[in-house]
């Protein structure tokens, strides 16, 4: 009962920290909102097992280092001679908090130890404040976007853990949101909202089916859940005509032509993630339709397989 009250209070403080951050008028209040956000998230996720304690301690250390860097930038902001350095420190601290490349080494360890509810907060709600602060800075993130988009996509290969796949997929989506921000566009919040909605549905399905690995996809017996899983996988990979595709399409429509180099690599990374998501569905489709051993089932199987292979190339259109 006491732990429930701690979780309720922590969730309330978590929401309060976000509201407080958006209504803050100076950098010191931004720092306070970050500290409230970090502590409330840790208390909400705390569980009495070694894996949870170790991962949350690692999360606390990383966030504390980033907060100290951010606090140093606040002190330097009083001196106009250090304005450029101040901008770099703010950007670096927020990139570290979010886990952008090259600060991504801790993401999988922390995310893997969280239950699905905490994982949702970690992959969506916890990104709001750092992204909001980044949107207020003036810094060139082009190299960070390129590295994050490509490295996150390659890290998804040979992963069987759904949490790790979702973590690296989230990292890839973060590169898109950062790309939106450098155009001084507030659509990053819309992108994050759409991504959070898709992720919440995906996690609800995982909670119902108790699925933690891509190998368990093979044992999906309920047709409705199977259809929902396929649709959600397509959404997460950003394939048309689903919501995940239109958020990226909106991003490209609002970008300028001189960013074609970054757009190309973002598209390539999206194709890689699309391939990984669709290849995860291959065992489910083959098991469901080939086991019936009928020409119609085999024809339908090859039709679906062809669709899965060709659909990612539609992203180039």
From TrEMBL:
<protein>
    <recommendedName>
        <fullName>NADH-ubiquinone oxidoreductase chain 2</fullName>
        <ecNumber>7.1.1.2</ecNumber>
    </recommendedName>
</protein>
<keyword id="KW-0496">Mitochondrion</keyword>
<feature type="transmembrane region" description="Helical">
    <location>
        <begin position="88"/>
        <end position="107"/>
    </location>
</feature>
<feature type="transmembrane region" description="Helical">
    <location>
        <begin position="227"/>
        <end position="247"/>
    </location>
</feature>
<dbReference type="GO" id="GO:0008137">
    <property type="term" value="F:NADH dehydrogenase (ubiquinone) activity"/>
</dbReference>
<feature type="transmembrane region" description="Helical">
    <location>
        <begin position="299"/>
        <end position="316"/>
    </location>
</feature>
<keyword id="KW-0249">Electron transport</keyword>
<keyword id="KW-0812">Transmembrane</keyword>
<keyword id="KW-0813">Transport</keyword>
<dbReference type="InterPro" id="IPR001750">
    <property type="entry name" value="ND/Mrp_TM"/>
</dbReference>
<feature type="transmembrane region" description="Helical">
    <location>
        <begin position="58"/>
        <end position="76"/>
    </location>
</feature>
<keyword id="KW-1278">Translocase</keyword>
<keyword id="KW-0999">Mitochondrion inner membrane</keyword>
<keyword id="KW-0830">Ubiquinone</keyword>
<dbReference type="GO" id="GO:0006120">
    <property type="term" value="P:mitochondrial electron transport, NADH to ubiquinone"/>
</dbReference>
<feature type="transmembrane region" description="Helical">
    <location>
        <begin position="188"/>
        <end position="207"/>
    </location>
</feature>
<comment type="similarity">
    <text>Belongs to the complex I subunit 2 family.</text>
</comment>
<comment type="function">
    <text>Core subunit of the mitochondrial membrane respiratory chain NADH dehydrogenase (Complex I) that is believed to belong to the minimal assembly required for catalysis. Complex I functions in the transfer of electrons from NADH to the respiratory chain. The immediate electron acceptor for the enzyme is believed to be ubiquinone.</text>
</comment>
<keyword id="KW-0520">NAD</keyword>
<feature type="transmembrane region" description="Helical">
    <location>
        <begin position="259"/>
        <end position="287"/>
    </location>
</feature>
<keyword id="KW-0679">Respiratory chain</keyword>
<feature type="domain" description="NADH:quinone oxidoreductase/Mrp antiporter transmembrane">
    <location>
        <begin position="24"/>
        <end position="273"/>
    </location>
</feature>
<keyword id="KW-1133">Transmembrane helix</keyword>
<feature type="transmembrane region" description="Helical">
    <location>
        <begin position="139"/>
        <end position="158"/>
    </location>
</feature>
<dbReference type="GO" id="GO:0005743">
    <property type="term" value="C:mitochondrial inner membrane"/>
</dbReference>
<dbReference type="Pfam" id="PF00361">
    <property type="entry name" value="Proton_antipo_M"/>
</dbReference>
<dbReference type="InterPro" id="IPR050175">
    <property type="entry name" value="Complex_I_Subunit_2"/>
</dbReference>
<keyword id="KW-0472">Membrane</keyword>
């Amino acid at each position: 009962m006491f732990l429930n009250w701690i979780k309720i209070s922590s969730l309330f403080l978590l929401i309060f920290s976000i509201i407080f951050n958006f209504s803050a008028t100076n950098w010191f209040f931004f720092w306070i909102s970050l500290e409230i956000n970090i502590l409330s998230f840790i208390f909400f996720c705390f569980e009495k097992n070694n894996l949870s304690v170790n991962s949350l301690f690692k999360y606390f250390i990383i966030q504390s280092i980033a907060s100290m860097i951010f606090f140093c930038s606040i002190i330097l902001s009083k001196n106009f001679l250090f304005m450029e350095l101040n901008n770099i420190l703010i950007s670096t601290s927020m990139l570290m908090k979010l886990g952008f490349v090259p600060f991504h080494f801790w993401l999988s360890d922390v995310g893997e130890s969280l239950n699905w509810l905490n994982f949702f907060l970690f992959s969506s709600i916890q990104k709001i404040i750092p992204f909001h602060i980044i949107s207020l800075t003036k810094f060139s993130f082009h190299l960070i976007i390129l590295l994050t988009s490509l490295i996150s996509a390659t890290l998804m290969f040979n992963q069987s853990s759904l949490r790790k796949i979702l973590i690296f997929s989230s990292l890839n989506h973060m590169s898109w949101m950062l790309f939106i921000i450098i155009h001084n566009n507030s659509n990053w919040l819309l992108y994050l909202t759409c991504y959070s909605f898709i992720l919440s549905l995906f996690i609800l399905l995982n909670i119902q089916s108790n699925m933690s690995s891509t190998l368990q996809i093979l044992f999906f017996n309920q047709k409705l859940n199977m259809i929902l899983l396929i649709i959600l996988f397509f959404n997460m990979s950003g394939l048309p005509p689903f919501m995940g595709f239109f958020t990226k399409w909106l991003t490209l429509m609002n970008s300028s032509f001189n960013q074609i180099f970054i757009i190309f690599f973002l598209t390539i990374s999206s194709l890689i993630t699309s391939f990984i998501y669709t290849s995860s569905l291959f065992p489910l489709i083959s098991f469901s339709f080939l086991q019936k051993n009928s020409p119609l089932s085999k024809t339908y199987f090859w039709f679906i397989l062809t669709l899965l292979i060709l659909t990612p190339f539609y992203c180039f259109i």
